[in-house]
C-alpha cells in the first residue's frame, strides 16, 4: 500500500485584492474571521447570516467587514472569489458548496473536508516571514501544536535578517545564478554562527 501524502499546493493569497464571503454568524464564523483578520488585517470580507453574535459584530466592525443580516442566497456569491460556509445547517452549507462549484468559486465548508477546495491551516507570522502548516485536513490540533513550535523556534529577529538580505541582494553583481550562490553561501555562514553560539550555552 502506498504511503498517504499531502498533495495540497500551498499559496499565499493577497486577500486585500480578493472578495471573501463568510456564510454564517455563529462561533465557527467568528473563529474563521478571527484567523483571517489576524493573518491578513487588510482582507476584504463580507458576512451573511440571519443573526450575528455580539463579539462577531465587534470583531467585524474593527476590521471593516460588511455584514448582511439575511439568509444565504446564491446572489450573495456575485463578485466573490473565496467563500467559507460555517452555518450549523448542513443543507445550507452543501448548497453553498454546490452554488460555488457551478460558478467556479473557491469554497471551504468548515469541518467538512469533502466539501473543501482549500483548508485554512495553522499560520506563524513574524514580520515578513510567514509559515503555513497543513495536516491535509486531518488534524487541526496537530497544526496548532506545530504552529506553537514554530513560533518558539523562529528567532524574533528573523525579519531584520530578511530585510538585510534583501538590501544585500540588491548590491550583488552578476547573473541570477551567481546571486543565488552568493546568498546561499552568506546565509550558510549565518546559520553556522547561530549553531556555534547555541553550543556555548
From TrEMBL:
Known EC number: 1.3.1.76
Domain of life of the source: Bacteria
InterPro entries named among the record's database cross-references: Met8-like, NAD(P)-bd_dom_sf, Sirohaem_synthase_central, Sirohaem_synthase_N
GO biological process: siroheme biosynthetic process
Pathway it works in: Porphyrin-containing compound metabolism; siroheme biosynthesis; sirohydrochlorin from precorrin-2: step 1/1
Pfam family, one: Sirohm_synth_M
UniProt enzyme class: oxidoreductase
SUPFAM superfamilies associated with the record: NAD(P)-binding Rossmann-fold domains, Siroheme synthase middle domains-like
GO molecular function: ferrochelatase activity; precorrin-2 dehydrogenase activity
Span of domain Siroheme synthase central: 127-151
TM ranges: none
Xref: Gene3D superfamilies: NAD(P)-binding Rossmann-like Domain, Siroheme synthase, domain 2
Catalysed reactions, semicolon-separated: precorrin-2 + NAD(+) = sirohydrochlorin + NADH + 2 H(+)
This protein's UniProt keywords: NAD, Oxidoreductase, Porphyrin biosynthesis
NCBIfam families named among the record's database cross-references: cysG_Nterm (TIGR01470)
Record-linked PANTHER family: SIROHEME BIOSYNTHESIS PROTEIN MET8
Protein name: precorrin-2 dehydrogenase
Organism: Aquimarina mytili
Amino acid at each position: 500500500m502506498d504511503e498517504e501524502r499531502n498533495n495540497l499546493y500551498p499559496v499565499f493569497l493577497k486577500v486585500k485584492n480578493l472578495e471573501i464571503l463568510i456564510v454564517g454568524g455563529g462561533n465557527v464564523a467568528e473563529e474563521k474571521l478571527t484567523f483571517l483578520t489576524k493573518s491578513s488585517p487588510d482582507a476584504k470580507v463580507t458576512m451573511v447570516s440571519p443573526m450575528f453574535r455580539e463579539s462577531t459584530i465587534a470583531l467585524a466592525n474593527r476590521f471593516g467587514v460588511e455584514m448582511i443580516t439575511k439568509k444565504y442566497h446564491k446572489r450573495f456569491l456575485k463578485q466573490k472569489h473565496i467563500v467559507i460556509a460555517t452555518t450549523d445547517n448542513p443543507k445550507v452549507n452543501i448548497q453553498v458548496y454546490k452554488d460555488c462549484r457551478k460558478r467556479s468559486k473557491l469554497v471551504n465548508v468548515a469541518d467538512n473536508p469533502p466539501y473543501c477546495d482549500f483548508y485554512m491551516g495553522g499560520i506563524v507570522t513574524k514580520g515578513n516571514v510567514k509559515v503555513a502548516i497543513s495536516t491535509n485536513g486531518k488534524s487541526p490540533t496537530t497544526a496548532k501544536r506545530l504552529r506553537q513550535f514554530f513560533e518558539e523556534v523562529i528567532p524574533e529577529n528573523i525579519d531584520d535578517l530578511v530585510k538585510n538580505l534583501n538590501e544585500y541582494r540588491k548590491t550583488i553583481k552578476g547573473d541570477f545564478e551567481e546571486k543565488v550562490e552568493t546568498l546561499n553561501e552568506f546565509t550558510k555562514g549565518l546559520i553556522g554562527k547561530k549553531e556555534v553560539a547555541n553550543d556555548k550555552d
